[in-house]
Amino acid sequence: MQFGPLPSRLSSSRSIVVLTGAGVSAESGIRTFRDSMEGLWKDFDPATLATPEAFDNDPATVTRWYDWRRLGCLAAEPNPGHTALAAFEQATVAKGGRFTLLTQNVDRLHQKAGSQNVVELHGSIIAWRCTKTGEEVTPPPQPMKEFPPRSARGGLLRPNVVWFGEMLPPAALAAADEALDTCDLFMSIGTSSVVYPAAAYIQLARANGAYTVEVNRDETSITRFVDISLRGNSGEILPELIKQLQE
Ligand code: OAD
What we know:
The chain has helices spanning about 5-10, 25, 40-45, 45-50, 50-55, 60-75, 80-95, 110-115, 170-180, 200-205, 235-245; strands at about 15-20, 100-105, 120, 125-130, 135, 155-160, 185-190, 210-215, 230. By secondary structure, it is α/β, with parallel strands linked by helices. The protein has 2 domains: about 5-30 and about 80-120 and about 170-245, TPP-binding domain (Rossmann fold, 3-Layer(aba) Sandwich), CATH 3.40.50.1220; about 40-75 and about 125-160, SIR2/SIRT2 'Small Domain', CATH 3.30.1600.10. It has a 6-stranded parallel beta sheet, with helices on both faces. A 3-stranded antiparallel beta sheet has the order 5-4-6. Helix 10 links the parallel strand 7 (about 185-190) and strand 8. Helix 1 (about 5-10) crosses helix 11 and helix 7 packs parallel to helix 11 (about 235-245). The mean pLDDT is about 95. 2'-O-acetyl adenosine-5-diphosphoribose binds near residues 27 and 164.
């Protein structure tokens, strides 16, 4: 693949922000949301599974579905795209640069691959929280025994993800805004860029003068706004790109 000026841009950037979405984990076997063939929202209705109202109406069904997805995430391994991003962070930090990975993914695969500065915009499916006390717990890696599950304090447990209609964690939003304010290179990888506020981050980065890059298997709503769009699988493109930086 031809990367044009990108490798030298990446090497000279001092403050890099990478935004990832479900496409980055697709090659780890985790289903995306909106793809016409394999997307989760093709087979499941988010209104009955991914909203606070759905949890209030039918907590057993909602938690059973999230436990199924949690087990899938726990069983998955990072793919070469995750590994390349971790290596890229390490190389950037080693030469005194700044690297922030904003992810909409709840699977924790970036951390499993070794990424350090990860901001979980949509929370995590690996952590759950008690709806009575707010306490976070990490359920063991086996299927849960009761649905809905309960905490030791007797409150219902819910996945620590952001549902439609809920606020993003304030600390994650603040960390994202702060990183975007100073970034000189912004990469959007494996996201359809339709869910806000993440979908707007490209415009913020552009307004701040950052060079913008997209890596996606398909064309998206931001393709025409970016400086360079690389079309293909992130698990193939990212390792190739990072290899060029090291040469
Ligand atoms: P989507 O499913 O909306 O988009 C995934 C994107 O990844 C699409 O543009 C695909 O073309 C692309 N893609 C698929 N496989 C790829 C690969 N191997 N390499 C590169 N790109 C690939 O997922 P998100 O944009 O992450 O939120 O969705 C955003 C949010 O919507 C999710 O965090 C979730 C969902 O509803 C909540 O649940 C709150």
